[in-house]
Amino acid sequence: MIEQARHFQAAMEAADPARVIAAAREWIGTPYHDQASIKGIGCDCLGLARGVWRDVVGPEPQRVPPYSRDWGEVGNREVLLSGALRWMLPCPPFQRAPGDLVLFRMRQGAIAKHCGILTSDSRFVHSYERGGVVEAPLTGAWRRRIAFALRFPKEAR
User: Fold this and answer.
1) Which is it for the CA torsion 101, 11, 81, 148, positive or negative?
2) Number of alpha carbons in the 13 Å side-chain half-sphere of residue 64
3) pLDDT, tens only, 36-58
4) Which residue in 3, 65, 70, 147 has a CA-CA distance of 20 to 30 Å to 46?
5) Rounded CA separation 28/68 (Å)
6) CA distances (Å), origin 141, targets 63, 80, 106
7) What string of H, E and C letters represents the secondary structure of the chain?
8) Does the predicted model carry a pTM greater than 0.85?
């Protein structure tokens, strides 16, 4: 299965970063809503990534199962990463670039449970509970939490 995923990833081309960034910025101002993904109405961080996928790549390739608010606090399986690896192009976090989806570990030793989209070397768009979708500075605290970086594919496979 992993080899098959690598084969598909090798055949994929990355989406235009400018298009990804423009799509992410269209979500700014969308209120936070757990498990939602509707531009202007509500989304969480995963819902933002899903919406940008739909805007840039096309229909979502799989249904996201319901998840609890504490999903990132239980277990040690990298759920967010494993889902993203099925459809996106991984890149080393130190080679991240504008347009990439970055996954954050909110605590050392915890799984990655938050995501955002880089808009420059120093800014990213993300959705969080008290603020909704915003473009924020990629401060040192955020940079230290980046665990993984992935690129949106040019088109759905």
Assistant:
1) negative
2) 22
3) 999 999 999 999 999 999 999 99
4) 3
5) 24
6) 32, 21, 10
7) CHHHHHHHHHHCCECCHHHHHHHHHHCCCCCECCCCEECCCEECHHHHHHHHHHHHCCCCCCCCCCCCCCHHHCCCCCHHHHHHHCCCEEECHHHCCCCCEEEEECCCCCCEEEEEEECCCCEEEEEECCCEEEEEECCHHHHHHEEEEEECECCCC
8) yes
